[in-house]
Specification:
The chain is mainly α. Helices cover 66% and strands 0% of the residues. The protein is built from 9 helices and no strands.
């Protein structure tokens, strides 16, 4: 890897492109190595295993969310970042479930709640994060079902048609915070 000019950033860049093109089930270390022009074993100079790679992907997806100035705006920015990438929510959910990565999503929400004087920003962030991840996962699964013809719907319209439900959920969880 070192001789090929690859670092963790370029590996994650390539993995994210493969995720978008093929989806999580077909994002393999072998496919990633092939795309980078290296042997699969060379990847392990930078990541311990596939789950470590997915944690780095999750961190990247979350950091793509535009920083916002309120809890509600932060929730929307995170939702948009998750939906921007095929299986993005699943990648972030699996990483959060295993407590891997930097926990950037939770920290962003916690900090937003703290700025709005929440009595328990850590708990509030955890609850809102679970809602965002669950919502985005459902939306992405519906979109994939539409892509393969399992449901009769336009994949692009699915995300748009669920915006009101997301907004209502965020409003309920933020107790009307702006």
């Amino acid at each position: 890897m070192r001789g090929h000019g690859h670092d963790l950033t370029s590996i994650v860049d390539t993995a994210l492109a493969l995720l978008d093109e093929y989806g999580l089930p077909d994002l393999t270390m072998r496919r990633l190595a092939t795309a980078l022009g290296v042997q699969p074993s060379a990847l392990y100079w930078h990541v311990d295993n596939k789950q470590s790679l997915l944690a780095a992907l999750a961190d990247r997806i979350v950091t793509e969310a535009t920083p916002a100035d309120s809890v509600r705006a932060e929730a929307w920015a995170l939702r948009d970042a998750l939906l921007r990438h095929r299986d993005g929510a699943e990648v972030v959910v699996s990483t959060a479930a295993l407590s891997l990565g930097t926990h950037a999503m939770h920290h962003r929400l916690r900090d937003a709640y703290a700025a709005e004087d929440s009595a328990d920003p850590t708990r509030d962030a955890r609850v809102l994060m679970q809602f965002i991840l669950g919502h985005a996962s459902l939306v992405q699964q519906r979109m994939q079902a539409a892509v393969i013809g399992a449901v009769d719907a336009d994949p692009g319209q699915i995300a748009a048609s669920t915006r009101a439900d997301f907004d209502a959920g965020v409003a309920a969880l933020t107790s009307g915070r702006a």
